[in-house]
Amino acid sequence: MDSTIDITEENYMETTVIFSGAEKQISSYDFKGGKVTAIFGGAEIDLTNCYLSKENNVINIVAVCGGLTLVVPHDWNVRSELVTIMGGFEDKAATKNRDAYIDPAAEIVLKGTLVMGGVEIKRG
């Protein structure tokens, strides 16, 4: 990953990394989701300063031999509808602390395809 972190205020994010890396920190009072494409690269996106929109909150992900790390607030409900082909999805917080409070109303849905790629969820 690059040593610089891109800090932005946006309600809908779009990130593309091809043979490279990116680190973003996003702030939003009405975060709606976005689109992330990682091809032979990786991205780390910190959403801990975001509040979810009342609308559908979806992040569309395409990862081909690449990966994405999402850092989300501790109480977000992350639902994966990802299709994985020789890839993987892991919610680190769900595996470590099963007693943590998750707000069912604060749901973000991950959709897309991972081909020899991965998505990791961390809680901030």
SSE blueprint and pairings:
Layout: E1 6-9, E2 12-18, E3 21-31, E4 33-39, E5 42-52, E6 58-64, E7 67-72, E8 77-85, E9 88-91, H1 92-96, E10 107-115, E11 118-123
Parallel strand pairs: 1-3, 2-4, 3-5, 4-6, 5-7, 6-10, 7-11, 8-10, 9-11
Strand order of the largest sheet: 1-3-5-7-11-9
Kindly state the percentage of residues in helix. under 10%
The beta-strand count equals 11
Order of helices and strands: EEEEEEEEEHEE
Main beta sheet: 6 strands, parallel
Low-confidence stretches: none
* Percentage of residues in strands: over 45%
Number of helices: 1
Report the C-alpha radius of gyration, rounded: 13 Å
Structural class category? mainly beta
Mean pLDDT: 89
